[in-house]
Amino acid sequence: MPSRSTILSNYPVVRSCDPAFARDRLFKVYGANSFDVRKPHGFAMNADHVQIGGVGLSYVEYTGEVSVGFGEVSFVRQCFSIEGAARHTSSRQSGEIVPGSWSQILPAYQPLTFEFPSGYRQVAMRIEFDVLLRSLSALLDQDIGRNLIFADTPAHPSAMEALRRRVFHLAIDYNDRGASFSSLAAGEVARMLVMKFLLCHRHN
After folding, report:
1. Under the phi-then-psi rule, with left for phi > 0, alpha for psi from -120 to 50, and beta for the rest, what region is 48?
2. Share above pLDDT 70 across residues of the chain, in percent, rounded to a whole number
3. Does domain 12-127 have CATH number 2.60.120.10?
């Protein structure tokens, strides 16, 4: 895979044509529990990840078709396609991430599998479920316990476009200047993204 400057290139995780190495990094950094490459010859993967408190931002691109599985992780996800279409499947839902669009909310504590085609590129946002609970409790000024369920209905497209811009802007800005952020400043930008996410999506 040719070297490409990505929006999170200062936080590299994988730059490899070796499926075994990619599997190891996916398991250790991203919490995956399965990884399958359809045709190992010609495979390549670029991936980056930055963790800002309870918020994670990841960039990934693949050469070659791959399948990546996750167990009952402690965070919710939303994926934003840059190029190509992918599929995700869990015990409760399945869907497609179409080019230039986004996935539905992918809940925490549910096993999940992704099918990525060759040439696929995306940015994914991960938010720890406990962070969402604390943030929503603060937003509503009441303790909601662990009672948080997101609606199956899609968010309004204009709200999602605004969230997408915020995610990409934060990724680019943090890639350029994150090393100079204080812990207080980093925590504040993460908090603002969580609030934007909660205000964008319908929930109970």
Report:
1. beta
2. 98
3. yes
